[in-house]
Each structure stands twice: as C-alpha cells, then as structure tokens.
Amino acid sequence: MTPLVQAPRDQLGRQPGDLRISVTDRCNLRCRYCMPREKFGSDHAFLPREQLLSFEEIYRVVWAAHRLGVRRVRLTGGEPLLRRDLPHLIELLNGLPDLELALTTNGTLLAEQATALAEAGLDRVTVSLDSLDDTTFRDMTDSAASVSEVLAGIDAARSAGLGPIKINTVVRRGRNCHTTLELARYFKTSGITIRFIEYMDVGRTNRWRREEVVPSAQLVETIDAVFKLEPVEPAFPGEVARRYRYADGEGEVGFISSVTQPFCGQCTRLRLSSEGQLYTCLFAERGTDLKGPLRDGLDDEGIVDLLASVWRRRSDRYSEQRSSVRGSTQPIEMSYIGG
Ligand code: SAM
Ligand code: SF4
Ligand code: SF4
After folding, report:
1. Burial letters 128-165, b for 16+ CB under 10 A, else e
2. Nearest ligand by distance to the CA of 339
3. Domains in the chain with CATH codes
4. Rounded to the nearest 5 degrees, what angle is found at the Cα of 171, between the Cα atoms of 265 and 211?
5. CA angle, 129 as apex, 339 and 270 as ends, to 5°?
6. Residue from 14, 201, 258 to probe ligand 3 pocket by mutation (most atoms less than 8 Å from CB)
7. Ligand 1: distance of its center to the CA of 233 in Å?
8. What burial class does residue 303 get, using C-beta atoms within 10 Å of its C-beta: 0-12 exposed, 13-18 middle, 19+ buried?
C-alpha cells in the first residue's frame, strides 16, 4: 500500500476525513426541500450518462482522497440506488484498506438491493424517512411512495447486516414536525439511531424560510419531556450529529443543527458530484473539475496533488456566516452535490 501523503490543512486548520460521492443527479422522489417539482419536472434535463464519472474514475478519486487521510466514504445522490450496477463500485472501493463505506438512500429501492450491496462490501446505510404517517410522508416527498416500502428497505438492510443503520429526518415546521415524537418512539427500541436534521437553505430552488426551521433545542426539549435524554460524547472528531442516549438505556437519538449550531470548525468533508466536480462546502457556488483532468490522462499523483491543493485553499464556513452572506450567494443543488 502506498504510504499516506501528509494530510493537508486548509486555511482554517481543518484536515480531510470524509468524501461524499453523488453517483447520480436523478431521483424517484421529489422532496419539496430538495427537488421541488416546479424545478425538477418531467422536462428537467438530468445529466446524460457519458457525463457521469465512470466507476473506475470514481475509484481513482477515492484512492487519491484515501492517500490524503480520508477514511469515510458515503455514496449519495440524487438517489444512489438508481445508479446501475452500484454494487460493482462498492466492490472496487472495498479494495481500499481501512475505509468505511456508507450509503444514504431514500430507502424505496433498498428492499430489493440490500443483499447485493452488503455482499459487495457496503458497511452501513442511512435511510431518509421524514414521517411514519403516509399522508405526511407523501407531502414531504411529493410522491406516491409509501412508508411501508421504506420500512421494508430498513428491515432488508438489517437482515443483510448493513449496520448500524441510521435514519435521517428533515424537520419542517408546519409540515412534519407533529410526527417527530412518533418517529423517535418507533426507533427508540429498534437499535436504529434516528437523527433529526434542521431544514437547510441549500440550493436555489426550495424557497427556504427560516421560520420553517425547527431548532434542535426545541426538539430535544419535546423528546426529553417524554423520554429522558442524556448527552453522549462525539464518536470521532468532526461528527456532525449531537448525540443523546435515552436515560432508560434504550438506544440513542441525534440532532444535526447546521442552522442553529453550525459546526464548520470541524468540517472534514470533500464532495464529488456525479459529473466529477469537486467541492468542499455543501453551500459552494462552484467546484473544481476533475473529470477533464482524469480523461486527459492525469496520473495518480497528479490527482492527489489536485485534491490537496483544493483542500489547502479552502476557507469556506457558510453555516457560520449564513446571516451575513445569505442571499448574496447562489449555492448549487443538494441533489447534484449530494447531501
Ligand atoms: N436520495 C437520498 C436520500 O434522500 O437519502 C440521498 C441524497 S439526499 C440529498 C441526502 C440527505 O439530504 C437526505 O437525508 C435528505 O433528507 C437531506 N436533505 C436534502 N435536502 C435537505 C435540506 N434542504 N435540508 C436538510 N437536509 C436535506
Ligand atoms: Fe431525492 Fe433524497 Fe432529494 Fe428526497 S432528499 S428528493 S429522496 S435526493
Ligand atoms: Fe462544512 Fe460548509 Fe457545512 Fe460549514 S456549511 S459544515 S463548511 S459543508
């Protein structure tokens, strides 16, 4: 194994630890906070296949990121389970040592794919689920999908050994916040950790309003009033969720509070879009093209150098600056950059 290149530090002293890879910009749901149907309708032009990075190209980028100290890779999208032959990519990445491989999915296609993903070497899945109530779920996802499909996906993932499983729930005031306690109760005894995510102003299309953000502190209070909570130390530096355990010993719950309690100082993330743009911040306006150099024959050490130079230059910390910069920037879409 080629030795680790000294992990670079960015302008704020941060080091890379995670790479999130969007393997497709397509999705079978239309969550209003992510891909509103007005902008992602039947006439929306998604990327043509030849513009997507191939699995071999993705592997080369991950290999280079691994040399810089990245030890956690998450496949995302769009809906990653729409990318054909995804287990093949997982098999390739699984050849890299000491690398945790996770996937974030809306869960609707997981029941049929969980076994193949696990056999290919996927370690963990995070399943997004915004409500247990079909009416609220369909309103959030603007789709005809049903909660039972997602729950079947979670069961299949568990049976396939894809664990520990996490659930992501985006909370929007007036839309699904009345169902959050029910979600917490459902997953409390299941061995699955649910994380409630503050609704973010990512992208340009979801018409985010701050009034719709339910601060995590308020949710902690609501849950704590019913099931006593105790704070838990982060599992690793840069962990974005604030963790709590139930005082009765039955599991954990997490809160991702990027609006009310930003964590940019610990940001260890790189992001690769499905067409090969490299980003650091989720709220970036532009990335660095890797596809061109990859297809023009850049060698492996060249990719390592390119990634390191992008990381060294970064000084972004959008969530900490939100109130002063919001409106003056044009962040790219979540479904393009990957969540
Ligand atoms: N389609 C997959 C899914 O939904 O899990 C993976 C991609 S999705 C962009 C990744 C995560 O981003 C999901 O958990 C989703 O709920 C979250 N997300 C999308 N838009 C968001 C927003 N505006 N604020 C907070 N989280 C958001
Ligand atoms: Fe699709 Fe995931 Fe975005 Fe929902 S959050 S529209 S499932 S990419
Ligand atoms: Fe990292 Fe940007 Fe999110 Fe801050 S806003 S934590 S810098 S991705």
Report:
1. bbbbbbeebbbbbbbbebebeebbbbbebbbebebeeb
2. 1
3. 18-337 (3.20.20.70)
4. 85
5. 15
6. 258
7. 25
8. buried
- pLDDT tens by residue, 73-86: 999 999 999 999 99
Query: E strand or H helix at 64, and its extent?
Result: helix 55-67
Is this structure's pTM higher than 0.85?
Answer: yes
Q: Whose CA is nearest to atom 7 of ligand 3?
A: 317
Q: Measured in angstroms, how far is the CA atom of residue 209 from the centroid of ligand 1? A: 17
pLDDT, position 185: 97
Average pLDDT over residues 48-61: 97
Quick: pLDDT tens for 186-243: 999 999 999 999 999 888 888 899 999 999 999 999 999 999 999 999 887 778 899 9
Residue 106 CB–ligand 2 contact under 6 Å: yes
Structure confidence by residue, pLDDT tens digits, 96-127: 999 999 999 999 999 999 999 999 999 999 99
Ligand 1 neighbour 35 (Cβ under 6 A): no
The answer to whether 61 touches 279, Cβ cutoff 8 Å, is: no
Distance 264 CA to ligand 3 centre (A): 5
Residue closest via CA to ligand 1's atom 7 equals: 77
- pLDDT band of residue 1 (cuts 50, 70, 90) is low
Query: Of all atoms in ligand 1, which is nearest to the CA of residue 201?
Result: 23
Residues 6+ apart with CB under 8 A from 65: 16, 19, 73, 270, 307
Cα 34 to averaged position of ligand 1 atoms, centre (Å): 7
